[in-house]
Write a structure and sequence with these properties.
It is an enzyme of class 6 (ligase). It is found in: Nucleus. It contains 44 helices and 47 strands. It is α/β, with parallel strands linked by helices. The chain has 6 domains: 190 residues, Metallo-beta-lactamase, Chain A, CATH 3.60.15; 149 residues, Rossmann fold (3-Layer(aba) Sandwich), CATH 3.40.50; 161 residues, no CATH class; 167 residues, DNA ligase i, domain 1, CATH 1.10.3260; 176 residues, D-amino Acid Aminotransferase, Chain A, domain 1 (2-Layer Sandwich); 157 residues, Nucleic acid-binding proteins (OB fold (Dihydrolipoamide Acetyltransferase, E2P)). Strand 26 and strand 27 form a beta hairpin.
């Protein structure tokens, strides 16, 4: 087989089919079973008419799944998958051309059908290959194994794009497939229309799989209980339905029996073999695979074959048989489940499991690709795309294809037929080529300066022939004058089709705008006059018809809105210039003759035919709806500027109200509400939200709903004028296309660049009002979909800028909600009063989130009872929830916001907003160039402040108060607010550590195997204990509280200590216990400590640092100074309260050449290991020896006991897993582990781990990782090339050890830190233990992994050219 792999130096490979075919043919053994194809040695013949167009890619010689039609006209054949109805015609004697297909399909072709491998060309998924000048890509089809879709793109500037799906089932993952994204708007999609009928809306594959698995489980349980032997039979194709078999084997813990032929196929697919889940021993399992149609015929309806089924049952020694027929044709679901056929001891379950797309999925796929047309490949008469069957199928995708792109072709057909009707065949061809040359010349003219364009317009007018005018006149309504026709032809450069298109689009824009003006402007405030400014008779009324009707006097009576018509053709900028520009005479047809159509201001109609249909529909709703009555007799005549000013004022008020209520009412209701509020938008908002009179909440709401309904009903008949006098009714024009895009516009505004975002104008509320939660929800929605950190920061910055400008009091709550919190971490307050893990446990017990919420709130201690909620409060609040507010409100309540941003992104975004708000609050012009240093400086200060005092209640008010003058020193340390602990870097042995600390005094300390604790004592004598994760754990250690009060000096009133709490066995000479033994100690709760008498594991506190003492911060003091504080202020009590064991090395002793120092350190390290410690810590004493809260610094190093070749273990986070096989079937194995990169706020995969686990642990993890801990898709902040079957939310931290570290092309850990394009992976990883004391963000970082890689004894040496070698 010829394999085409992507070259590292090229994104695509080029193949000349004829050349490759000739060489491949020559390599075949002789004699051939048939002579070589003529196409191999001679020019290709024309494509015969017998070849179905549904199999031939237009403009090429590529034939897809049509080997029965092979001939001398092509040597390029494509096979989408290995099903007989697609590969018919292939066999050992195939010599017609090359067969392009996927690797699995190629393997099956060669092994099963004996197709010569020399003629099979393998296309790997996602690899771009140029075949005969066309770019061809294969992408997964989600059908049977090896099934692919083919994407074809021709060469040249006007490349054609075609998608051939073969057989496929649409999945959401296709929406994110990069290659498919490039084919949005393709010229055509050759679509698998097997189930293109609304009745085929069968359930997702997962639901059908669940049914089969659960049914077999039930059968097995009943069989064991009754002692009856029951045979399960599953019908499958030769290739296909393998997913069902694998799922049954995994979930039911059994093997699957297949015959030798099926085993051969499965082996070729890579999932067979006797050591796997399949077996040829029929006695080894009671689940057997049978061939298709054995249990019954499926087409055109199911006809069970109970006779054959009983034969199989008796032959194999069973008392009962249960069969499963999985296919989409079996969609006969009942209310109580899927259809079942029964007879005696036989059952056949009809399972709507399909590997073809359902009707809704087909529509979703077409909607996603938005092609110009759909070509059905199934259900056609002879494969003819113009047959009745094809048209019937294509109707199902009306509105989903890009009809705009077909508009030119639609009109061009009439254009060509019109010209050819008056010309002979040769003249028609000549005339068309001449016209194309003229159009090309005109298009080139558009690139000329405007002055030259004016000079050339007369010459174009000379080229406009009588035939062109006549032809265009046939397209247009009868009232269009010859002057207008000439003008249209000049503008279009003589292109009749373009001229007609321009006319209909401008007419549509005109009527849409006229409709908006009419619906928003009170009749009493508008005076309309003719173009000449004359008044009509007082009693006369003029009717303005649709463009398809001829007006009585078009020049003077066309709505008297010619000013409007002129404005509808102006750009938005020109409209805003007012009367100065409006009054200037414009030379019609001249100044815009060469203006590109893309600069037109209106939103274009999708197709002309849609315009006709919509207009006629509107016109048919009432006898009077196609007319606008205009009173031309007015006492006051106003100029266009006054007219526009009034309309714009009214329009802005209505738009502002609709914007605030966010689509909560129709435009008509908004206008009526403004009438009640006498034009005051704020009063109207209060009425809508029932804030002005709570006693009338329900009444006001119901009035609005009723009014909405009435207005909409009136709109459908002969609507009354809006914002009108109560005594005057004015019928309005049919609403052709008036839609509100306020909500979408507001949402998009958040994503604007910072320089273009206007914090007040783009906000969805006004100054003085509380900020709506919708502002946050829209931002969350955009951030959730954004992958880039810079763009995410900018969107958050824009969000905060609006809050600062309009509602600064809402900034603090907004920051909390962005972080999915309602209080600082150490206060342990949750939205439901419980942690997320606790909510999960309670949900398993209660089975209802409402019951969980009630239980949480009942157990939550409150300082004061909250104000009772009234029925009206709840009703009104729920009524106000809009757009995605509910989505993120629910996520907040279950503590799973999932927007992918953390505090390290949120705080810089807020800092940027503060700087910009301070500098540009009164200036509409914003430039970031001059303030970049300030942005960076304030971001650093805010981050530094939060690192030391992670309390937003203190930080945010100080930041808003001081603005750009804020500094980290502005916040004073206080007891009761934990400090993020300082962390150590990993090193590989004492020698390397000594090199790093060369010439600097340092200390060695035992690294205890316990729980890190931060101990706070306040001035009032109270003691609090916080964990490494800054969670309060005072209630767990009441004995520690007693020690502190007993052993601290009377000279100290307040302090913050850093220590390790270790389990200790005082009965065995104060022997240190392991972390697991300490973990068995009771935990207590926030409001009740464990009783002293119930304590089973004693503890000893080993203090190693102090950060705060008697109101003074010691963070900037050296470690030597801080250690002196500890010695002076505390007295030790062996086995209870001790200072960490230490060894001091002075600066003159710190040298690798000093063997005495190295020996002392080695002895100290051995003593630490013998004392059940993890290793030792090394810390600088004097130079750069401050306490760097929350940072991992080079001034602290850790040396742990070596494990094989890896100098230290890694703390990694499980982010995904695969389903286990064999003994581990039903569990997760292996797990995908990741480290954390704080710079990019992403988890990067390191390795798969599948050893070190107990069976009990597997069961716990299967239970733990369930529900919403299993993510529906890979988060954007998970970086890996692995494809696990399940993605997990990042929640646990596991300690992992391995043999060594190696470079990996799959894993992304530390990518770019050691190798430019490869990550680092752990070889032979093994699970050691869980680390409940660490949060996912506290796991090993990418820098840690890179440091370990560089420090290991045996490592890969990376060269500059990306090559790597081991030594």
């Amino acid at each position: 087989m010829a394999y085409l792999f992507s070259s590292p130096d090229s994104k695509s490979l080029s193949v000349a089919t004829s050349t490759l075919f000739l060489s491949s043919l020559a390599s075949l053994p002789s004699p051939h079973s048939e002579p070589p194809s003529a196409s191999a040695a001679s020019p290709l013949s024309p494509v015969p008419a017998s070849v179905p167009p549904t199999a031939l890619i237009p403009g090429s010689r590529f034939l897809v799944d049509a080997f029965r039609h092979a001939g001398d006209f092509t040597a390029s054949y494509f096979l989408s998958h290995f099903h007989s109805d697609h590969y018919t015609g292939l066999g050992p004697s195939w010599r017609r051309g090359l067969v392009f297909c996927s690797p699995l399909t190629a393997r099956l072709l060669v092994s099963v059908l004996s197709v010569p491998p020399q003629l099979v060309v393998v296309l790997d998924a996602g690899v771009r290959v140029t075949v005969d000048g066309w770019c061809v890509v294969a992408v997964d089809a989600n059908h049977c194994p090896g099934a692919v879709q083919f994407l074809f793109r021709s060469s040249g500037p006007n490349a054609e794009r075609y998608v051939h799906t073969g057989d496929f089932r649409f999945s959401q993952s296709m929406i994110t497939e990069p290659n498919l994204l490039e084919f949005i708007g393709a010229d055509a999609v050759f679509l698998d229309t097997t189930y293109c009928n609304p009745k085929f809306t069968f359930p997702p594959q997962k639901e059908s799989l669940e049914y089969v698995v659960n049914s077999i489980k039930r059968v097995k349980e009943e069989s064991r209980a009754s002692g009856e032997r029951v045979l399960c039979l599953i019908a499958t194709y030769v290739v296909g339905k393998e997913r069902i078999l694998l799922e049954v084997a995994r979930r039911c813990g059994c093997k699957i029996h297949v015959d030798s032929r099926k085993m051969e196929i499965l082996t070729l697919l890579g999932i067979g073999g006797e050591d796997g889940v399949f077996t040829e021993d029929a006695a080894a399992t009671d689940v057997h695979v049978t061939g298709w149609n054995i249990l019954g015929e499926t087409w055109p309806y199911f006809r069970p074959n109970f006779v054959k089924m009983k034969e199989i049952m008796v032959e194999r020694g069973y008392n009962k048989a249960v069969g499963f027929v999985p296919t989409g044709w079996m969609y006969e679901t009942k209310k109580e489940g899927f259809a079942v056929r029964t007879k005696d001891s036989l059952e056949i379950h009809l399972v709507p499991y399909s590997e073809h797309s359902s009707y809704d999925e087909l529509r979703d796929y077409v909607k996603f690709l938005h092609p110009k047309r759909v070509i059905p490949t199934v259900g056609l008469d002879g494969g003819k795309p113009d047959s009745k069957e094809a048209f019937a199928l294509q109707k199902h995708f009306a509105g989903l294809v890009d009809e705009t792109a077909n508009k030119q072709e639609f009109l061009m057909a009439f254009h060509r037929s019109s010209r050819n009707a008056t010309l002979g065949p040769e003249d028609a061809v000549t005339g068309l080529s001449q016209q194309e040359g003229e159009v090309q010349e005109l298009e080139e003219a558009t690139l000329l300066p405007a002055s030259l364009a004016f000079e050339r317009s007369d010459s174009f007018q000379e080229k406009i022939t009588v035939e062109m005018k006549k032809e265009l006149s046939d397209f247009l309504p009868s009232w269009v004058s010859q002057d207008l026709i000439l003008d249209l032809l000049i503008k279009s450069g003589g292109d009749v089709v373009q001229a007609a298109t321009d006319f209909f689009e401008k007419e549509r824009d005109f009527f849409e705008e006229a409709n908006v003006y009419n619906s928003e402007t009170p009749k009493s405030e508008i005076d309309l006059s003719s173009d000449h400014g004359s008044s009509a008779d007082a009693s006369s009324q003029q009717e303005v018809p649709l463009f398809s009707q001829k007006p009585m006097d078009h020049s003077s009576k066309l709505l008297n809105l010619n000013a409007m018509r002129m404005k509808s053709n102006l750009s938005k900028r020109e409209r805003k210039r007012g009367s100065n520009s409006a009054d200037k005479p414009k030379k019609k047809g001249r100044s815009t003759a060469f203006k590109p159509l893309t600069e037109s201001s209106g939103r274009k109609q999708s197709t002309i035919t849609n315009y006709f249909a919509r207009t006629m529909l509107a016109a048919s709703k009432s006898d009077t709806s196609d007319k606008v009555t205009v009173d031309t007799n007015q006492n006051n005549v106003r100029n266009d500027d006054q007219f526009t000013e009034v309309v714009e004022s009214e329009k802005q008020s209505v738009s502002q109200l609709l914007q605030i209520v966010d689509g909560g009412m129709s435009r008509e209701s908004a206008i009526s509400l403004l009438e009640k509020a006498k034009g005051d938008v704020n009063v109207a908002v209060d009425i809508f939200y029932s804030k002005t009179d709570n006693s009338n909440v329900l009444e006001n709401d119901m009035n609005i709903v009723t009014q909405n309904t009435e207005n909409e009903m009136t709109d459908k008949s002969s609507s009354t004028g809006l914002l009108r006098n109560s005594s005057e009714d004015t019928p309005k024009m049919p609403n052709l296309c008036v839609q509100s895009y306020v909500a979408q516009a507001d949402s998009v505004c958040i994503s604007l660049p910072i320089e273009k975002y206007l914090p007040i104008e783009h906000a969805c509320w006004t100054a003085g009002q509380p900020a709506p939660y919708l502002h946050l929800a829209r931002t969350f929605d955009l951030v959730e979909r954004e992958k880039g950190k810079i763009k995410t920061t900018a969107m958050l910055c824009n969000m905060f800028r609006s809050l600062l400008a309009l509602s600064p009091d809402d900034v603090l709550p907004a920051v909390y909600l962005c972080t999915n919190k309602i209080s600082p971490d150490h206060e342990n307050i949750e939205a439901l009063g419980s942690s997320r893990s606790k909510i999960h446990e309670m949900y398993k017990t209660f089975g209802d989130l409402g019951d969980v919420a009630q239980e949480c709130r009942q157990n939550q201690m409150l300082l004061a009872p909250p104000r009772p909620l009234s029925i009206r409060d709840v009703f009104s609040t729920l009524r106000k929830l809009r757009e995605m507010e509910m989505k993120f409100l629910v996520r907040t309540l279950v503590r799973n916001l999932r927007i992918g941003v953390m505090m390290k992104t949120i705080l810089p975004a807020l800092a940027h907003a503060v700087v910009i708000d301070g500098k540009y609050s009164n200036s509409p012009v914003l430039s970031l160039e001059g303030i970049k240093p300030q942005l960076q400086e304030l971001s650093t200060e805010v981050a530094e402040a939060y690192n030391v005092i992670p309390n937003l209640d203190l930080l945010i008010p100080s930041l808003l108060r001081e603005g750009t003058a804020f500094s980290a020193s502005s916040l004073a340390m206080i007891t009761g607010t934990p400090i993020p602990p300082m962390l150590a870097r990993i090193t590989n042995g004492l020698t390397q550590s000594l090199k790093l600390f060369n010439g600097r005094a340092f200390t060695c300390e035992y690294k205890y195997d316990g729980q890190r604790a931060q101990i706070h004592r306040s001035n009032d004598g109270s003691v609090q204990i916080f964990s490494r994760q800054m969670k309060e754990s005072t209630s767990r250690f009441p004995d520690l509280v007693g020690m502190i009060k007993e052993l601290c000096s009377i000279e100290v009133s307040s302090f913050i200590l850093d220590a390790e709490v270790v389990g200790i066995d005082r009965k065995k000479g104060n022997k240190l216990m392991s972390f697991q033994e300490l973990s068995s100690r009771e935990r207590g709760s926030k409001h009740s400590s464990i009783a002293i008498q119930n304590i089973k594991v004693d503890i000893c506190v080993f203090v190693f640092d102090i950060m705060f003492c008697n109101g003074q911060s010691l963070l900037n003091c050296s470690l030597r100074q801080r250690r002196k504080y500890i010695h002076d202020l505390f007295q030790e009590k062996p086995g209870h309260f001790e200072l960490a064991q230490q060894l001091t090395v002075e600066a003159d002793e710190a040298s690798v050449d000093n063997s005495t120092t190295l020996e002392r350190m080695n002895t100290f390290f051995k003593m630490a290991c013998q004392s059940s410690c993890e290793g030792i810590m090394l810390k600088i004493l004097d130079v750069d020896a401050g306490y760097s809260a929350s940072k991992r610094c080079d001034s602290w190093l850790k040396v742990k006991r070596d494990y094989v070749g890896l100098g230290d273990s890694l703390d990694l986070v499980p982010i995904g897993a695969w389903y286990g096989n064999g003994r581990k079937a039903g569990w997760y194995s292996p797990f995908l582990m990741a480290c954390y990169n704080p710079e990019y706020e992403e988890f990067q995969s390191v390795c798969r781990v599948m050893s070190g686990f107990s069976d009990e642990f597997y069961k716990e993890m299967k239970e733990f990782y369930s529900g919403d801990r299993i993510l529906p898709k890979k988060p954007v902040y998970y970086k890996t090339d692995e494809l696990p079957e399940l993605w997990f939310s990042a929640e646990q931290v596991w300690e992992i050890r391995g043999a060594d570290l190696t470079l990996s092309p799959v894993h992304h850990a530390a990518i770019g830190l050691v190798h430019p394009s490869r990550g680092i992976s752990v070889r032979m990883p093994r699970y050691i233990r869980s680390r409940p004391d660490r949060s996912p963000e506290d796991c090993s970082t990418a820098t840690d992994v890179a440091s370990l890689f560089k420090a290991q004894t045996r490592k890969m040496e990376v060269s500059s050219d990306g090559q790597d070698t081991s030594h």
